[in-house]
């Protein structure tokens, strides 16, 4: 399954925050975009494994993936844009 992630700058300039919007409570942090992506994959796998072990339903796989890399937080407010990539 593929899930979208949101990578945001934090108040600490050494870290980014990561949220998986389709999986409640699935978050992580990283020092670089690449580390965030790697750690998000691990967090998703562990979270889904936990849900399966507890007999809970898995979140549905999103139909689209949205990717937006923003250097400055101000860009988000000024020019909200999204790149859409359909998945099959």
Quick synopsis:
With 88 residues, the chain is an alpha+beta fold. The chain has 2 helices and 5 strands. β1 and β2 (16-19) form a beta hairpin.
Protein described:
It contains 2 helices and 5 strands. The chain has one domain (6-86): Double Stranded RNA Binding Domain (2-Layer Sandwich). The radius of gyration is 14 Å and the shape is elongated. 31% of the residues lie in helices and 23% in strands. The strands form 2 sheets. The chain has a 3-stranded antiparallel sheet with strand order 1-2-3, covered by helices on one side. Strands 4-5 form a two-stranded antiparallel ribbon. The chain has helices at residues 33-53, 73-78, and strands at 6-9, 16-19, 27-30, 64-67, 83-86. The chain has 88 residues and is α+β, with helices and mostly antiparallel strands.
Strand content: 15-25%
Secondary structure category? alpha+beta
Question: How many separate helices?
Answer: 2
Which sequence of strands runs across the widest sheet? Answer: 1-2-3
Coarse morphology: elongated
Counted up, domains total 1
Low-confidence stretches: 74-88
Oligomer: single chain
Largest sheet: 3 strands, antiparallel
Distance between the termini: 11 Å
CATH architecture: 2-Layer Sandwich
Question: What does the average pLDDT come to?
Answer: 78
Q: Mind telling me the C-alpha Rg?
A: 14 Å
Reported by name, the CATH topology is Double Stranded RNA Binding Domain
Q: Note the run of SSEs as H and E.
A: EEEHEHE
CATH top level assignment: Alpha Beta
* Helical content class: 25-40%
How many strands in all? 5
